[in-house]
Amino acid sequence: MPPVVPPFLSTGDPGSFAMRTIVERKPRIVAQVLESNRVSDEVRRRLEAFLADMREGVVANPFDGRDDLRPSFEPEELRAWEGELAAYAGQRWLDIPWYLAQAYFYLGLLIAWGYYDPLPRASVAENRGLPADPFEVLKEDELGGPQGGLAVARQIVRALDGPDGGEEALGFLLHSSLWGNRVDLGCFELDESRRREVFSRDRESLVVDHTDRVLAALASARSIGVILDNAGSELACDLLLVDRLLSTPPAPDRRARRTATLHVKRALFFVSDAMGKDVRRTIAAFCSDAEVLLARAGGRLEQAMADGRLLLSEHWFWNSPLHFTRMPPLLRAALAGADIVVVKGDANYRRLLEDRRWEPWRDMEEIAGYFPASFACLRTMKSEIVVDVPREKAEFLSAADPEWLINGRRGLVRYCRGRAHAAEGREG
Question: How many domains does the chain have?
Fold first, then answer.
C-alpha cells in the first residue's frame, strides 16, 4: 500500500509561520515597496486596494476582464495560474496552501504595480523613470550596501587568496553559497540579525550534511545546473562558487570542458529572487570593483558567458504556482542533461516536497525521486518543513529550540542521486 501523502502547509494553520507570513510579513512587503519608491497616486491606490483585498477578499482570477495582461504570459503559464486559482476560487487568503498564497501575493502585487501592463507600462511611466522592478532599489542596496553582496564577495575572495585551489576552498565556497541564503529581502527577521553570519562554516548547524558527497559530485561533473534563489549576497556567493567550478576541469578527465547553466526567473517573483538581469548586474559589479581579486572573478565569469561555458536559462515555470512534480517536459529534459543540479534556497526546497507536512524523518530521495537528475539542496531553514532528520534529532531540536525550522540558524546540504543511479543500491 503506498504511503499516505500529507496535506499541504496552509495559511489557515492556527499559529503557524505560514499564517504569520500572510498576516504580518506580506503587508510589510507592500509597505516596503511604497517606502522605497516614489510612486504615483494611481499606483499607491492600486497597491492599497490589493492589500485590502488580501486582508478581506477571496481568491479570484486576476486575468478575468484583463485581456491586456495575457500577452505578458506564456499560454502554458496562463493555464497553470488559472487552473491553480480555479481550484481555490472563493476561498479566503487564510484558507489556501501556503506556497500558492505566496505566489498569488506576488502576482497580485506586480499586477497592481503595473509590471504586466501593456508596454509602455503606463502606471510605471507616470512615476518619472521609476524602474519596472518595484524591488530594484532594495536589490541595489543589498548588492552595494556596507554589508551587501559586494562586501560579502570581497571577503570571500580575500579569504581564498592563496595557493590552495582544492577541495577545502571549494567546500568553503559551497558553504558560503548555502549560508548566503540567509540574506533574503523578504525575510525581515533574518535580514539584519543573521547577516553577519553569512560566512559561518559551522557544520554543527547543518541538520543534514552531505557536503563530501556534493563536493565529489561537483568535482566530476561536466555539466552543472544551478536553480538560483535570491539576488544580492546569495547570488554573489553563488557566482563565486560557479567561477571556481568553471576555473577547474572535471576529474578525472582534465581535458574536458565544464559548463554551468544558471536557471533564473523569467519575470519578477518574490522580493529578491534572481532574474537574468540580476546575474548580469552582479557580474558587471564584480568586474568594476576596486578589489582586484573580485574584478578578476568577474572577468572570468564574463568570459565564460562569452564562450558558452556559463549559460543563463529563463523559464516561466520558476515564476509559477506549480511544484516541481509538475515541471514541464521540456524543462525536465533540460535539467536531465546535467550531471548535477544545485537547488538553492527555501522555496525551491519546499517545491521539491510539494510544500506538504512531511514528518521530519521521511526520506528526500523517496519523496523527490521524480526529479530528472542528481541534485544537491543548499538551504537555510526558513519554513516549517524538513525531511531526512531522524526522529530523535527532530525531537531534541524541537525541545532545545522551538523555532529551529524557521529562524535561519540551521541549514542543510542534501545530495540525492538521480534516476540513472537508482539501480546502484542505497548508500549508508
Answer: 2
Does the pTM of the predicted model rise above 0.70? yes
Tell whether 12 is covered by a domain: no
* Shared domain check, 108 and 51: yes
Strands 375-380 and 411-416: antiparallel
- Assess whether 239 and 275 both reside in one domain: yes
77: in domain: yes
Give the CATH number, domain containing residue 332: 3.40.50.10880
Instruction: Encode pLDDT of 142-160 as tens digits.
Output: 898 888 889 989 999 998 8
CA–CA gap between residue 299 and residue 301 (Å, rounded): 5
In degrees, rounded to 5, the angle at the alpha carbon of residue 161 between the alpha carbons of residues 207 and 238 is 45
- Are residues 339 and 220 part of one domain? yes
Interval 249-294: pLDDT, tens = 998 877 789 999 999 998 888 878 899 999 999 999 999 999 999 9
Measured distance CA(177)–CA(182) in Å, rounded: 10
260 and 246 Cβ atoms separated by less than 8 Å = yes
